[in-house]
Amino acid sequence: MKHTRIVITGIGLTAPNGNNLAEFRANLLNGVSGIDWTEVRYMGRWPAGLCKFDPFKHQKKKDVRIGTRAGSISIYCAREAVADSGINLDARDKSRIGVYLGITEHGNVETENEVYNISQFKYDTKFWTHHHNPRTVANSPAGEVSLNLGTTGPAYTIGAACAAGNMGLIHATQMLRLGEVDLALCGGVSESPQTFGIFAGFKSQNALASHADPTKASRPFDKGRNGIVISEGGAIYTLERLEDAQARGAKIYAEIAGYCVNSDATDYVLPNPERQAQCVEKALINAAMTVDDIDIVNTHATSTPQGDIQECQAIATAFGKRKEPAAINNTKSFIGHAMGAAGALELAGNIPSFDDLVVHPTINVDELDPQCDIPGLVINQPRSVKRVDAILNNSFGMLGINSTLIIKRFRS
After folding, report:
1. Phi and psi dihedrals of 407, rounded to 5?
2. 108 found inside a domain
3. Catalytic residue set
């Protein structure tokens, strides 16, 4: 079946090590981590990735006070994506603009803070904010974007654990192809380090990273890795049908080539490498590509002892018949695990490779785990390559959800 061609025409992001694509990319090539110590309520200091964007660039003080951290991240990224695309929203039919944002969870931050706040007043609920309900509904980040931009088309979130960043783009692609909208703002966002619960949860699972140097705490594939560094961030894209983008003379970053979403159906937490490999293989079929067409594989690897091994097994299975190894990298080594934003941010960090033919590395690999030693790994230093025509982006999440997104160099 011939698909309507969907292209990326704008990118807005904030990551622990950059507040726009140029800054983010430069830090990925120069080995600059965004991880530092943060104070976690009840738990003390832990490594985490916090963003340093200016929320007041696109919001009034009142809106920041009433809204959420995830909403501010979303608004910043959406506004930056629109500006980057060169689209004049006031000249568009705003009922034909969709907002589709992937999230891991939402509302935990506000609930924890409110419970803590009333605990200081003997749990008197008169001290419970009347902003609590709109802050904690799952569609809040997308709704805050809609309010800020004045868009009146569909605006909602997609709960897909840590596969959510890819899911935002996949869903937007589907809606554009169905003709439901003419412009999509899509991607993933997260405010996870603002809640102590997620730190406590991973710690109880023995999956929370520790290291004397916070910048080295996130170290996928390293033999001494010991868990996840929790981070926040966001990456939002403008997606359009090709004919619409060409009609307005838009610059085009890349074209959506194919995708797949599937489920393990085996465990609440532990991944299933067989299902992950199937997700990659079906995405290639959807894109009408073979493994030899893929030039960069961005791994999901979170720096957990078992998860990294299982993903490497999945990649080895899916790419085992390839003639020459693809370049394989990881972005979490720089920014930690940005949860719902992870897939979207990691994709963005690799998109400039279409132009500069350089693959950013996985950093902090002092001793490569032999069980993660698969062909093509780009370790500690960037690698120049002869060709980058297609990038495959893996994002996997709890309860067994897997997503693979493939983008390709745009050719008219």
Report:
1. -120, 160
2. yes
3. 162, 300, 337
Taking alpha carbons only, the member of 316, 335, 320, 311 closest to residue 395 is 311
Helices and strands in the chain: count of H runs, count of E runs: 14, 15
Distances 407 to 6, 283, 358 between C-alpha atoms, Å: 10, 11, 16
Strand blocks (E) in 230-374: 230-231, 233-241, 254-263, 296-298, 327-329, 358-359
Encoded tokens for 4: 């309507």
- The residue count of the chain comes to 412
Residues 45 and 144 in one domain: yes
Distances (CA, A) of 175 to 302, 307, 351: 30, 32, 23
C-beta of residue 232 within 8 angstroms of C-beta of residue 341: yes
Give the dihedral of Cα atoms 87, 92, 95, 97; nearest 10 deg: -20
Task: Check if the beta carbon of residue 195 is closer than 8 Å to that of residue 108.
Answer: yes
Domain count for the chain: 2
Domain boundary among 247, 281, 299: 247
Closest to 232 measured CA to CA, from 278, 193, 204, 272: 193
Q: How far is CA 175 from the centre of its chain?
A: 20
User: Considering the domain boundaries, does residue 33 fall inside one?
Assistant: yes
User: How many whole angstroms separate alpha carbon 320 and alpha carbon 318?
Assistant: 6
Is residue 1 assigned to a domain? no
- Indicate the helix (H) or strand (E) that contains 156: strand 155-159
pLDDT at 32: 98
The verdict on 347 and 320 lying in the same domain is yes
Output the pLDDT for position 1: 46
Domain that holds residue 317: 257-408
Structure tokens at 331: 């972005």
In a domain, 252, yes or no: no
CB 99 within 8 A of CB 186: yes
Neighbours of 156 (CB within 10 A): 16
* pLDDT tens digits, 32-87: 999 999 999 999 999 999 999 999 999 999 999 999 999 999 999 999 999 999 99
